[in-house]
Description:
Helix content: 25-40%
CATH architecture: Roll
CATH superfamily: CBS-domain
Structural class: alpha+beta
Strand content: 25-35%
Number of domains: 1
Distance between the termini: 21 Å
Number of helices: 6
CATH topology: CBS-domain
Number of strands: 9
Shape: globular
Radius of gyration: 18 Å
Amino acid sequence: MSRGIPLLAVRGRKMARKPQVRDCMTAKPLTVAPCDSLQRVIELLRRRDIRSVPVVEEGRLVGIVTDRDIRQVAPAYPLFRDEEEIRRYTERLTVSAAMTADPMVIAADAPLVRAAKLLETYRIGSLPVVDGGELVGMISVTDLLRAFVAQNEVVAP
Length: 157
């Protein structure tokens, strides 16, 4: 969710502060549990048009599952004849079979450019955002692009 870049007053002048992850992240993301079925995750990713979801157990972030992770553990044609057979197979698999455990995270107060560098360096699509060890959001490449567009529309419409 893009909120724009906040302005701070410094000695009577308005001055843009460096944008932080919390300014552009998607707050309160949907989560799944390690014991949930992969089919539930697949449906969630399709319905919400997202590519990853954090995995939480007893209130603690334990992993992340992405569309790429699912493709690696849920084979498709020619192993299965139809979509119904794939669905039955993914209902038997759990999130823990596909998730990346102990994922890289970023703090909510980290500079936005730090998130961009991590996503680019590790070639990943999103990062869980934590504040005091608690999952508070997700920051994705799409969120960064929204922030970039918003910043540049203000500078040069």
